[in-house]
Structure prediction request, 450 residues.
Amino acid sequence: MTDGALKPRAWFRSIRDPDEVYDLDEVVYTARDGALLEVAHDMDELRKVSAADWKKRFRDRAGSTEWPYGSGVWGKKEWVLPDVRDDNVVSMYEGNTNLFLAERYGADLGLDDLWIKQCGNTHTGSFKDLGMTALVSMVNEMIHRGKSVRAVACASTGDTSAALAAYAAAASIPAVVFLPRGKVSVAQLIQPVANGAIVFALDTDFDGCMEIVKQVAARDGIYLANSMNSLRIEGQKTVGIEIAQQFDWEMPDWLVIPGGNLGNVSALAKGIDMLLELGLVDKKPRIICAQAQAANPLYLSYQRGFEVFEPIAARPTIASAIQIGNPVSIDKAIDALRRYDGIVEQASESEIAEACARADRTGLFNCPHTGVALAALEKLVKGGPIGPKDKVVVISTAHGLKFVDFKVQYHEMKLAGVEPGLANPLIELPARYDVVRDEMLRQIDSRFGS
Prediction:
């Protein structure tokens, strides 16, 4: 399925100085002036394939058994990391996740065309798999080229650690994980433990863990796997490409995505950049980044026209994976939002919980981070600028089953600071037909009408 005549290339370059470049197998994360790097592609080479041929190639590969092109990431290999040999790719056939037509939930909000991109329907249950397959595959390529990589490491609030541990285990590469003690769900915590990673629970928050992992990467020969490593962005950018493909190469009007460390925002824009530049789509969607009010440094910067950005001390939030006060990818995210006429909205703890519950009542089963995006969506529908006829896609970042403790606490009315309006606690009754029948009929009438 590869085109032998096509010779795509990719390399690191500074986001501030395109002349400062590095090979992808170099252990480097930032430019000389401290700016983040990005992966650049030889777009002239990619233009040798027509837009129609790219569309056919991507369509033919999706879900196929030809290694590794059935993956939603590696089906776009020429656009992602073309220099990785096929036999060095580490893949769980991630991506190709479904678009859920949220017809009933959309109707409740007054939207005719609302979709949820279910990125949690993947191997470790979150969109982080998309970035981690790219990063771990490049590390595997580096090792096979004779480079010395002692281990890969990340700071995490849960999902990143799960993805890193799983992909590193598949490649027999040691993984080290730094988590904030007591701030990660049990389901998230057990994933890296089960996959054999070295897991440290530190008495700090995510930002504190991030400082530690940056030090071990700089001093101890450990390869950094957080999203400041732009290899991750190459996998995550395929979300936008997949959405276009699923809509037969028509972009929606709005894309709504939760933001914490903010690599996902820039990744979404980067995938669409390539679609536009190579002629596969001709419409720019608008991007909405949603933040928890307790961890909202991007929102605060947006309120000042992005003229000033100041890190904050993030407060506890039920959307624990985005409890980040000093996001690494802030510069990339602001650039993406400026280019895509973006909006940043915030959501309180109560708004997050109630948005999750409302959507769950219509057949969804959302993680709290998706709840942040849904709460932002609800605000922007009610107060504008999203109109009833607009096509809207919300990016769901993780599977709700990873956060059952949050849902249990909500429905048991034990979620701190939240008065649940849609709690649905268990009804405990004696095992007698007449008592069960009477209560069943009463519940049906009260909830759905006689």
